[in-house]
Every structure is written in C-alpha cells, then in structure tokens.
Amino acid sequence: MLVEPERTPYDLRFRFLRFPVRVHPLFWVGSALMGASTLELGLHYMLIWIAVVFVSMLVHELGHALAFRLFGTDSEIVLYIFGGLAIPWSQVSGRGRRIIVSLAGPFAGFVLCGIVYATHKATGWGDLANGLLVWYLYISLIFVNLYWGILNLFPVFPLDGGQVSREVCGKFWGPRGKRISLKISIGVAAFLVVYALFCVIDARSRGEMLSFLPWWFPRGSLWTAILFGILGVQSYQLLKQEDWTERHWDDRVPWER
User: Fold this and answer.
1) Deepest of 18, 78, 120, 256, by most Cβ within 10 A of its Cβ?
2) Which of 131, 153, 175 is where one domain is finished?
3) Does 22 lie in the same domain as 147?
4) Do the domain assignments include residue 57?
5) pTM attached to this predicted model
6) Mean pLDDT score of the chain, rounded to an integer?
7) Are residues 79 and 118 in the same domain?
8) CA neighbor of 38 nearest in space, from 52, 24, 56, 59
9) Residue 79 counted as domain residue
10) Exposed/middle/buried for 75, CB within 10 Å: 0-12, 13-18, 19+?
C-alpha cells in the first residue's frame, strides 16, 4: 500500500489544476470490485458508482496535493487499486506541516460532501422523486466522502490517520514513537476486522444483533475486513522490521562497542 505503481501504456493521464494525474488501470478494477453488488441493480448503477469513486478519490488526493503546494512543493496524483497517492517532488519538513498534509485529503472529501449536501438541501436535486439514478448518485457521493473520510482517519498505517498517529507518537516518544504507532495500528486494525466480520454475520441474521446502533452508524463489510486485515499484517511486518533493526544495527564506531 502507498507504493507508486509501475507505469503502463494503459494509464489515463491528464492535468488537473496544473497537477499531473495518472490513473492506473487497476483503479477501475478495484472500484468495480468494491461496487460489485450494484450490478444487481443494473450496469448504469455500477458506472455511477465508479464515477463517484473516481471523483471522490481525485478530490481526496487533490487535498493532499494542494497542501503540499502550500508548503512549497508540487506533487503528482496517482489513482491506484483501492486508493490513491499524492507524491511530492520534495519532502515537507516539520511535524505540524506533515500532519496538515495528511489531514488535507479527508478534509477535501468532507468539503465535497458538504457541498453535495448543501446543494441538495437548497434545490432538492437528490430527492428520490427525481429518479432512482439521481438519488443513488447523491447517496453515493455522501457515503464515499463522509464515511470513507472518517475511515481514513483511523490510526492505521499507512492511512492518513496512521500518518498523523506516527507524527504524534514521534513528538511524545521520540525514536520509540514509530514502534508505538505501529502497535496502535495493529490493535485498531484487528478491532475493525472483528467488527466488520461481526457486521457481515449480523447482516445474514437479519441485523438483529446490531439493531441497537442508530441507522447512520457505519456497518462493516467483507471488503472492510479484508482491507484492514491487509493493513494490520503490513503494520505487523513493519514492526518486526523495526525490532530487527534495533537488534542488529549499531552505529557506534568499533572502539565504542
């Protein structure tokens, strides 16, 4: 995760607000997989879902890119399977600045969500009376930009919340901060996997076990469990690498050992 994919002859390339944008072909595959259930409603619903994911991911990464530009460096936006990247052309110094860059992505999504909601309240364009397709477009824009933005703020590496967690832990615990943030990442990821699987089981039992939760409270899915399972394993592997480095790396000169 968060590794720039290789360039392919099938990449979609364009510029947006002077930022180079590259869309890897696996982005379309990942978006389709996440919205596979919409095929039961019809192909046009699937196409709307993919378009919503594309716009929402682009806005999210644009938030990061604008924050990078604010601090003196431009970046390239890459949309890849199950996510995207804003790759800066030079490093941003300072914990506070790096935290702002991390938070700028979800914030951009929240702004888009607010615009969609406000325009709907002002004009009623997303009402069911205007057609199922329009209503589905409205609901999908709200869902992706609100709930995915919140999910992205969980302190799980390498999500934006995990990046913020690492910076905060580094501030308070110095060199131990990265290891502490990875342990937090593993714990939160494990909890979310269990919750998502419980939601899947509950859905098959007609939702009776979680009926006490309000309707707007997000439910996990099998995709949520898979995603955070992968991220949890990655955090565990990074933690083991940190442990190995601490045991084997010694930067003292020979006469100091």
Assistant:
1) 78
2) 153
3) yes
4) yes
5) 0.87
6) 89
7) yes
8) 52
9) yes
10) buried
